[in-house]
């Protein structure tokens, strides 16, 4: 898999790519997120784990503008207050999101899926009169190669296997040229072989992008070899290298204790 | 000849039709009808067995108006997943705008001979023309309103609905409520649109009598050309990147949002275009049938449009045209032959096409052709392998 060259971002000027401070969100009295604080450095690859109901998806929803927090701070690139924007605006600010269930446009070809995700003006008028430039064509070809689906470019995305859809969706994220990628359970439903390939793919992408990945699969987390945050009941339980975190008695209790 | 070929292929329409064989056939058929129907009606003498009676010209013109309306619905339902159960409202509003112009053209030839007011206003003892009737004396103003009024309603309605993210069944229900509310409003005499009776007793359009065969043929030709024009417009829209965004919204709305598209803007644009097409269909319909009344707002009418599109084949554009014509031909035949069973048949048609023909008539034809292609290639394995 080849590297995708991208305009370099000046990570060093920035303190944190994503910063959550004291975020709380409750649904009908149930605190899905409880005083959650999180700091993702520019260029980082962070894995977030936690049992079901730990608040991982709600956290993603808050970052991407789908849900507004009751209280707390959500900042992107130090200065941008994400709670003031909606999904489309946040996507255009440079945050891409991959859903837990692979979500691609099934009745369009792989190529068209990537073309739609291609960074650029999102207005109605531009879309009506849009024409692909040679450069954009090359970029789509490059990304479809990166995710290993080049041979199937003209097929309908609906014909792909579950794992291939995951890769296509990751490809779509890259097309958006986001600075921050939020990846929700990319290895769900994948074979061991595919899981390892996906971990390698994310590490490859991490060379140019900051990535937050939520996952259950411990082999996958091991393969990522990154800092890990453990969520439990809506807040951070532990944070650090996987070896350290998995030795933490409270983590063991939460995962194995009951 | 090859030079013409080249020029045609370079043109917008040529490029659009290159990979659209069914569309090419459809446009060819519409243009042929636009020439042949007036020929067989006007040129062939009435006593020849080849003569096309005028009532058939009007009937076919009516079908074409329905086809245009079906195209409008397929554009939003087939490509963007917006199931409007109130599209008849836009059709009726376009029809009323045309009807108002035709009423003003009656002048003092009404029953009461009042040059200032339409008959129904005289009957209601009104003394002056309501302000919203001003300007409809002018043909061009009226034609402008034919598109503008449905567009304005669609804009306001769509803006509110799409911004609040009303989708799916809920959107269908409020579109149905919209057309029902308009039905009730237009039934009222004090709305100033002729109440229960609507607008009728039209005499002429631009000085040409609506009863004359010549005018009827012109209206037929205009209807055929409008369907052809609308088809090309819709095809251009759905083949653009904008059209692919529409499909993306239909298949995975939140994915599209997270890609950074303002879904509500994309929906609003196509909804307004569709409403304008429906309005134009209504405006062509009214002079051909000679009346517009609140019944056109009836929710049942709007549901029928959905059935035409479903039967023809959703998301294909030409399927909508075929569906509208086939179902309405069946309606004409069965309401004549067995009037009491038509509604049951319509219901059965919808159930059958949903259960067994999810892609409509067009889907069945495509399936058959694919099977044929597989059979043909199976018959010639040697040629393929060599």
Automatic annotation (TrEMBL), chain B:
Query: Is Magnesium among the key words of this record?
Result: no
- Topology of this chain in the membrane: Multi-pass membrane protein
Keyword Hydrolase belongs to the record = no
Keywords, sorted A to Z? Cell membrane, Membrane, Transmembrane, Transmembrane helix
Where would you find this protein in the cell?
Cell inner membrane
| Residue ranges of the TM segments | 25-44, 50-69, 76-98, 139-162, 169-187, 218-238, 266-285, 305-329, 341-358
Cite the InterPro entries for this sequence.
ABC_transp_permease, ABC_transptr_urea_perm_UrtC, LivM-like
Question: What is this protein called in UniProt?
Answer: Urea ABC transporter permease subunit UrtC
Q: Which organism is it from?
A: Spongiibacter thalassae
Organism placement in taxonomy: Bacteria, Pseudomonadati, Pseudomonadota, Gammaproteobacteria, Cellvibrionales
């Amino acid at each position: 898999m080849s590297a995708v060259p991208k305009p370099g971002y000046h990570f060093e000027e920035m303190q944190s790519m994503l910063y959550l401070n004291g975020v709380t969100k409750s649904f009908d009295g149930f605190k899905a997120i409880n005083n959650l604080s999180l700091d993702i450095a520019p260029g980082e690859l962070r894995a977030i784990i936690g049992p079901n109901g730990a608040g991982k998806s709600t956290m993603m929803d808050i970052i991407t503008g789908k849900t507004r927090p009751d209280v707390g701070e959500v900042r992107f690139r130090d200065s941008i207050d994400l709670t003031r924007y909606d999904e489309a605006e946040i996507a255009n600010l440079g945050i891409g999101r991959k859903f837990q269930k692979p979500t691609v446009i099934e009745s369009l070809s792989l190529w068209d899926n990537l073309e739609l995700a291609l960074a650029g003006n999102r207005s109605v008028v531009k879309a009506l009169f849009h024409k692909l430039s040679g450069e954009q064509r090359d970029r789509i070809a490059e990304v479809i190669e990166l995710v290993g689906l080049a041979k199937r470019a003209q097929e309908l995305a609906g014909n792909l296997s579950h794992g291939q859809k995951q890769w296509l969706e990751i490809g779509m994220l890259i097309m958006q040229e986001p600075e921050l990628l939020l990846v929700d359970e990319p290895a769900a439903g994948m074979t061991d072989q595919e899981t390892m390939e996906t971990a390698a793919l994310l590490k490859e992408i991490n060379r140019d992008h900051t990535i937050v990945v939520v996952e259950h699969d411990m082999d996958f987390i091991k393969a990522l070899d990154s800092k890990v945050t453990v969520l439990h009941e809506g807040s951070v339980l532990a944070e650090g290298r996987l070896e350290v975190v998995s030795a933490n008695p409270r983590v063991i209790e939460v995962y194995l204790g009951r | 000849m090859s030079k013409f070929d080249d020029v045609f292929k370079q043109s917008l329409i040529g490029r659009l039709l290159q990979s659209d064989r069914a569309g090419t056939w459809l446009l060819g058929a519409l243009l042929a009808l636009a020439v042949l129907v007036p020929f067989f009606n006007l040129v062939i003498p009435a006593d020849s067995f080849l003569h096309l009676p005028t009532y058939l010209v009007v009937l076919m013109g009516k079908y074409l108006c329905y086809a245009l309306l079906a195209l409008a619905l397929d554009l939003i339902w087939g490509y963007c997943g917006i199931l409007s159960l109130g599209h008849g409202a836009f059709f009726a509003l376009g029809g009323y705008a045309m009807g108002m112009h035709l009423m003003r053209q009656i002048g003092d030839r009404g029953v009461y001979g009042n040059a200032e007011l339409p008959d129904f206003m005289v009957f209601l003892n009104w003394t002056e023309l309501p302000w919203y009737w001003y300007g409809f004396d002018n043909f061009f103003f009226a034609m402008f309103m034919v598109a503008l009024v449905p567009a304005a309603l669609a804009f306001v309605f769509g803006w509110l609905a799409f911004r609040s993210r009303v989708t799916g069944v809920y959107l269908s229900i409020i579109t149905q409520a919209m057309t029902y509310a308009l039905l009730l409003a237009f039934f009222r005499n004090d709305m100033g649109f002729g109440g229960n009776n609507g607008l009728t007793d039209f005499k002429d359009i631009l000085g040409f009598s609506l009863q004359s065969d010549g005018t009827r043929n012109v209206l037929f030709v205009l209807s055929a050309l409008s369907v052809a024009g609308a088809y090309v417009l819709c095809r251009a829209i759905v083949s653009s990147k904008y059209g692919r965004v529409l499909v993306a919204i239909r298949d995975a709305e939140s994915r599209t949002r997270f890609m950074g598209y303002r879904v509500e803007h994309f929906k609003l644009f196509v909804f307004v275009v569709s409403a304008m097409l429906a309005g134009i269909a209504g405006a062509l319909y009214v002079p051909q049938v000679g009346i517009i009344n609140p019944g056109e707002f009836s929710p049942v009418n709007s549901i029928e449009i959905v059935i035409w599109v479903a039967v023809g084949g959703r998301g294909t554009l030409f399927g909508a045209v075929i569906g509208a014509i086939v179902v309405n031909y069946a309606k004409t035949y069965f309401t004549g032959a067995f009037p009491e069973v038509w509604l049951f048949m319509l219901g059965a048609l919808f159930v059958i096409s949903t259960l067994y023909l999810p892609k409509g008539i067009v889907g069945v034809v495509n399936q058959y052709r694919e099977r044929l292609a597989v059979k043909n290639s199976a018959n010639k394995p040697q040629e393929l392998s060599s």
